[in-house]
Design goal:
The complex is a heterodimer of chains A (277) and B (321). Chain A is of the alpha/beta class. Chain A folds into 2 domains: 4-98 and 177-271, Rossmann fold, CATH 3.40.50.300; 107-174, no CATH class. Chain A contains 10 helices and 12 strands. Classes of the chains: A alpha/beta (277), B mainly alpha (321).
């Protein structure tokens, strides 16, 4: 079976004597409109780690994070958030377990950055409940951590792609969940903004948050992530970046003649872009 | 802005109670309402005619303002109004059916408007929630437009088949309040109350939905459930409003836009209550004007309000982004 060589790696990573896992997902299957997207995907996440989810287009990366987040109902498999089964979780309990940051949000007119982050905080309130002083402090804290305080009063419609992505992360942070899931946050950003956003996510992980990052850029994944999960053919293979990004796997999964080099926080993917035929 | 609206609302309410074919001094109006006005003819006019009519105007105006605000929020579409989920078309058909085919049972007009308005909305949501991609905005809007066309065709068909009875239907189509006392509100108040209460619970979920289905889901809400709730609330409010005052679609479309443009925010905790205040003030004021400018002739308030409202709306639109 493809990828069986890595089951051992995943088991070590998950079973390491680290903090208790915040998320465990086993044998997740998702079928949408008769098409099998996932056919047995596993995922583990612990506090303070940044896990990158990579894979070719259409492999099911987004479906996997949506399924474990409760945005897409799995056809089979078991997902636990801090020991609680996803299927039994509703509303505020789910909002407190994880924050899901989509690739791009619609930008409504007449909503300021601070109002948007306040909406994020509303996940913690009872229906018709009022914002307390602690809630307002939570909003300010989330904006501070995401670095959006400087433009808190600006309308969402006036933001650049990178600024908007930071605001989306701030909305997620306002939920005060221990896990932040970002679905391709850097895909539409220029190089500078992508460095900025991935740096922010790394900082958040270093300060104790668990971060799941769906990303296309393998060099970025290798530099930022503690572990990498490759989604391919509806299944997952996981390990540390150095173990995962082997020329063999890059060739098998991405059909690329490439190898990865890493030196400190710098990574490079050496790709044979133009091949002589 | 809210303070200004409250002042406008009080002024409109006072004017609506005091003005008309007979002018009653505002001090006397207050006395009558507080129950110390004696039993003169003015007392009769204010208590039996103007008070119910004013309360109707306030309730209908507020209901249409709220219905428009939550639908525009839930469907993320600036064109959304109670028309779009079929309610107006259904209510119009129900009322015209009674007026044209059963003119002897004219007392059933509000009930029929309510019934067919809610039926049309139920059909829209039934279709929009079946098959693939259930509960998506596109499906709701398209099913709504289809249902609106169907019921409008029914209404037009009825009017064309009985042209001699069409004049009696015109007042309902134009939209306007009557001097029927508390009759209209007696049957419809539970629908106003239920729709309004549901709307209050939808304010925060609708703010989440404005940031997209995924963010709403991240925050623990269910986007399709929010849209369904908004549809039910708007259907209750708009059907009850149509039962009392005929077809005043313009109000539900325009008031929330004016509120957003003037307030500079689309935060629902502001837009929904302010649309209620604005709708109530607008309809009470328009109704007072409509029955005083050419007194004792009453102009139909629907067209009157549109003629006055459109220039204001276009002026605001020019300044908006």
């Amino acid at each position: 079976m493809e990828g069986s060589d890595l089951t051992g790696v995943r088991a070590t990573a998950a079973g390491a004597a680290g903090p208790a896992p915040l998320l465990t997902a086993r044998d997740v299957e998702v079928t949408i409109d008769g098409t099998e997207i996932l056919r047995g995907a596993d995922l583990d996440l612990a506090a303070g780690e940044l896990v990158a989810i990579v894979g070719p287009n259409g492999a099911g990366k987004s479906t996997l994070v949506r399924a474990v987040s409760g945005l897409q109902r799995p056809t089979a498999g078991v997902v636990h958030w801090s020991g609680r089964e996803l299927r039994r979780m509703r509303g505020r309990e789910l909002a407190r377990a994880r924050a899901f940051v989509p690739q791009r949000i619609p930008v409504p007119a007449g909503v300021s950055v601070k109002e948007a982050v306040t909406i994020g905080r509303s996940a913690l309130l009872r229906p018709l409940g009022r914002m307390t002083r602690a809630d307002r402090a939570g909003v300010d804290g989330a904006m501070e951590r995401a670095g959006v305080t400087g433009f808190a009063e600006r309308a969402l419609t006036t933001l650049s792609g990178g600024e908007l992505q930071r605001v989306q992360i701030a909305i997620g942070l306002a939920q005060e969940a221990p896990v932040l899931i970002a679905d391709e946050p850097t895909s539409q950003l220029d190089l500078g903004a992508a460095i900025d956003v991935s740096g922010l996510l790394r900082e958040l992980a270093d300060s104790g948050l668990a971060v799941l990052l769906v990303v296309h850029d393998l060099a970025l994944a290798a530099a930022a992530a503690d572990r990498v999960v490759v989604v391919h053919d509806g299944r997952t293979e996981a390990g540390e970046p150095g173990e995962v990004f082997t020329p063999e796997r890059l060739s098998r999964i991405w059909k690329a003649d490439a190898h990865l080099t890493a030196e400190g926080g710098r990574t490079a993917l050496h790709v044979a872009w133009i091949q002589s035929r | 802005m809210i303070a200004a609206l409250v002042v406008a609302l009080l002024a409109a309410t006072g004017a609506s109670l005091a003005l008309g074919a007979v002018k009653v001094p505002i001090a006397e109006v207050l006395d009558i309402i507080l129950g110390k006005g004696g039993t003169g003819p003015n007392h009769q006019i204010v208590e039996a005619l103007r008070l119910p009519r004013t309360v109707e105007a306030l309730a209908v105006g507020a209901a249409l303002g709220v219905a428009g605000a939550i639908l525009q929020g839930a469907l993320a579409n600036p064109l959304a109004s109670p028309d779009v989920i079929g309610v107006t078309g259904g209510a119009g058909f129900g009322a015209i059916l009674i007026l044209i085919a059963f003119p002897a049972s004219v007392a059933l007009v509000p009930v029929a408007a309510l019934f067919f308005g809610l039926l049309a909305a139920a059909l829209v949501f039934g279709f929009a929630w079946s098959g693939r991609n259930r509960g998506s905005t596109g499906k709701i809007v398209l099913a709504g437009i289809a249902m609106l066309s169907l019921f409008t065709a029914g209404t037009t068909g009825l009017l064309a088949s009985f042209p001699e009875r069409a004049p009696s239907a015109l007042f309902f189509i134009a939209g306007g309040l009557t001097n029927a006392g508390w009759e209209g509100l007696k049957t419809t108040w539970p629908y106003f109350a239920a729709g309004g209460l549901l709307a209050a619970f939808l304010i925060r979920p609708l703010d989440r939905l404005a940031l997209g289905d995924d963010v709403a889901a991240s925050l623990g809400s269910r986007p399709q459930l929010i849209r369904l709730g908004a549809g039910v609330s708007a259907a209750l409010l708009a059907a009850a409003a149509a039962a009392v005052a005929g077809l005043l679609g313009f109000l539900g479309l325009v008031v929330p836009h004016v509120v957003r443009m003037a307030g500079g925010t689309s935060n629902q905790a502001f837009v929904v209550p302010t649309s209620a205040l604005g709708g109530a003030a607008l309809l009470a004021a328009a109704d007072t004007l409509a029955r005083t400018v050419r007194a004792p002739i009453e102009l139909p308030v629907g067209p009157f309000m549109v003629v006055l409202g459109v220039p204001v709306f276009l002026w605001l639109l020019r300044k908006a982004v």
